[in-house]
Amino acid sequence: MHQDASMDAKVGRHFGVSTAPFMSIRPLRNECFSVTHLCCPVGADNPLAIHLPAQPAYFMLLYMRDAEHCDIMAGGMETVVRRYRKASVCLVDLHEGASIRLHSDLDALAFHLPYGLFSEVASIPHAPEVAPLRCLRGSGERIIWNIGCALLPLFERQGNSVDDMLRPIAIAVCIHLMQHYERKVLDSDEAPLTVWQEKDAKEFMTDHLRKSVTIAEVAAKVGMLASDFVEAFSATVGIAPEQWLALLRVDQAKDYLRDRRLTTAEIAARCGFADELQFNDTFLKQTGMTPGDWRRGLYH
Length: 300
Description:
- Helices cover 41% and strands 19% of the residues.
- The protein is an alpha+beta fold.
- It has 2 domains: 7-180, Sandwich (Jelly Rolls); 195-298, Arc Repressor Mutant, subunit A.
- A hairpin with a 7-residue loop joins β1 and β2.
């Protein structure tokens, strides 16, 4: 772990926990990647205001437990308090700073990601081109969650071995965000979802994963017609909602496939597939192998 006076060291102070453990590294050249483990106790009757200063960087929170907070706008107005689920992320651009008010305890990993770091990563052969990232509000993120779980034990370690593990993780985080959350330039007739509509739509699909949820039902949840929702979701996320739901079901199926007591028919039902045949076809399309082959690969 590296202690210095940079913004990397100050993240905990901004959240009222100056002793919060953090790790930082320059994975390529000059720009620094840092991650801080925030554990902020917040009294029910004393919500805590957090203010992050303007700077050329992105800030990402990975929630290790459910949390509740609202945004504080530039004029001081506060938005409605929302719940952010465990394993979800918020990603904000700090070019104008950011402010929130915590209404619950916070257990999260905070990533400080300078713009210049993405430029350095983009210079790696075959890496994505650098582009602005879009804002995320409580989006479920399995890959970042897995990375976060891998990072937690490193906070207890010291020395070069931490650097050796942190360097590729830092690059992997940047590449993942560049690949999946590029802010797209929309045509004049395209209207994207708001960050809250995206959050509500994804959470509704996640909550109804085992059911045969229709796109019309998801659209109604965010106050849109089905056709408008499909266009807006595709413009915002980059894939159609049906494809996003299929990916979500396949990801969930992978977790179940680790339990050899479950049959593929049982897993298909738990993940909302119409039948075992649809499960096999969808899994093969998304992964290039059948569920059975994928499961056998876990143990050989």
